[in-house]
Fold:
Amino acid sequence: MKTIITIMLCGSLMAQQANSTIDTTTVSPVNLKPVTVSALRATKDTPMAFTNVSEKELNKQNLGKDLPVLLRFLPSVVTTSDAGAGVGYTGIRVRGSDATRVNITINGIAYNDAESHGTFWVNLSDFASSIEDLQVQRGVGTSTNGAAAFGASININTNDSSKESFALLSSSVGSFNTLKNSVKFSTGISPSGFELSGRLSNITSDGYIDRASSNLKGYFLQGTYTSENTKLKALTFGGRERTYQAWYGIDANTLTTNRTYNPAGAQYDDAGNLQGYYDDQVDNYAQDHTQLHIEQRLSNSSRISLGLNYTHGRGYYEEFYDLLIGGSEVTYDYLKLPPLTINGQSISATENVAQKWLDNDFYVANLLFHHQKEKHELNIGAYYSSYVGLHFGSLVWATQANVNPKHRFYENTGKKKDGNIFAKWGYTISDQWNLYADAQLRWIDYKVRGEVKGPESFTVNDAHTFFNPKVGVVFKPTAAHQLYASFAKAHKEPNRTDFENGSPVPEELNDFELGWRWKTSNATLNANIYYMGYKNQLVLTGAIDKEGAPIRANAGDSFRGGIEIEGAWAFAPHWSMQANLSWSKNRNKDKYFKRDGTLEALGDTHLAFSPSLIAAEQLTYTQDNWSVSFVSKYVGEQYMGNIDAALSKLEDYLISDIQFQAVLLNKSNTPKLNLNIHVHNVFDTLFTSNGYFYTYDDDWSSASSITTIEGVGYYPQAGRHVMAGLTLHF
Structure:
């Protein structure tokens, strides 16, 4: 392992190549044609840390795994998979911040769920196949739409119009009965400027974890019209997913003896003997997005864009509640059932099957203006969204109950309005100096009324107005070197789960960035130092609720600081290397914890799920028609809680993949055939990338003392597994 880490460190001191021998995911100029890209993304003269990922780089890895997994080798990125193999529910953390704190936009429209702030890629099966490019900005980044970026933002641009017509058939097969089939087409741009394109995909997998199956369907349909001064883009995309639950994890003993065990859906007889598992212990959800983008060139230097969006999501997760295991979920009070007496015996609990539903609508209007002339660049944006989400529980079946079919035992409605205006100004003072200023005013109004499962009354009335300024400077002493410094402030409101678990307050972040970029004909290097000071950061406590959702709590003062280095080097004919290294310090300040009934001062403690060292490398050999890459990812040890408990430590891991691509057919006037083979975790490393940690006070075992009990759970990841795919391009 020391040898591989040394290679990573050496590669990081080289840099990322800008010529055609490397599929870069590096900082480079972006395509400025769409106004949404111009207004929301960083450029080579923006004083912030970012990485661009091209369609080519995504396609190189896209054999069916979810988008977060395709980004796992980027700087400061850690990914997780409930099912253990990257298909189904997956998550991403950047600089230690989980997905609820990573802002996602698709064509400038916020994708994070308005209430939970989460991003659920399982609802957009094979969406990577419809992405033109994306940009990951680390830290606060530039002003964007939706909830603030407290760890990173990911700006996604879907496929642009294709000049030529094509049809593409793609099929992948691999371990755990994973199968992906996809068809994609474009009519090409007609002489009158019209183009129609689309994609249909289906991915199925048994998962690495027992019964963690996935059946994911995705679609994408787009029509465009392009003239000299106008571009219209109408698109609809979405998916249907049915995944068996795998979000409970396993304890330390089971991790050692049966690491693929899944407790979800377990059914027992009266004597406590396991009888089997409930077949429909699934998450079943559908999500459809419809967008319209109108872009108009006003002059040679000015453009304006209007974006409209409607998203409809609906679905449920279904759960079997066994009477032997007990818990409040089997009680009549929880199910809101009337009293029942049979043969003179009062019945107060029953085995049951319940569905927890979410039915929501999300409306967005987005106006962007871009002006660039001589030394000035100006971007102005206005964004408004309205969300309505109906949450309810429906009783499907019970052994003993006098109840109407689909009895609702709780119901509440969440409504959120979110708006912002921003202005970004860049000014070129000279060939060496650039100034950057960015100011955003954002307001939110979030209300919830009704009952949550229990049933318990649940009310939220949360409204805020935030001012988020940013400023920076870029200095270019020579053509090869660039230095930058920036400051950014951000605020972020709590999410729904935070309110369900306490009385949270908004977070505040001051982000300082200092960087250096270096570029030559065959190498580039990007180095960035950052300090992110938080007030009332909503940190992961390590615990999860009954639905597997992470529980967060305000942590007072805390900080994240570190250095990120990414680079690539074309060091010989046919040979290239890319690498990145992130070293950081992530701490709660002056942490207190009540253990065994006594309040203890712990001092500065590690922030949960924030490894100090993350590194990756990719060594590639390329010939005319084929290439092979050896890719590695190292994630250092991390704590799953905030009190530095030894039990909560998640061990470090190093995994390596081999990626092989070849063009099998590439003759003119004939279809093109590509082969793609990935051997994941080639050394069969047993590792866990995620888990949970919890504590509770035992005050009933002894009348005279309180004992604090600690517990953990783990989400094991797959060992060596293989995916292979063929793509036929007509």
About this structure: Residues 2-729 form a domain with the Maltoporin; Chain A fold (CATH 2.40.170.20). The longest helix spans residues 2-12.
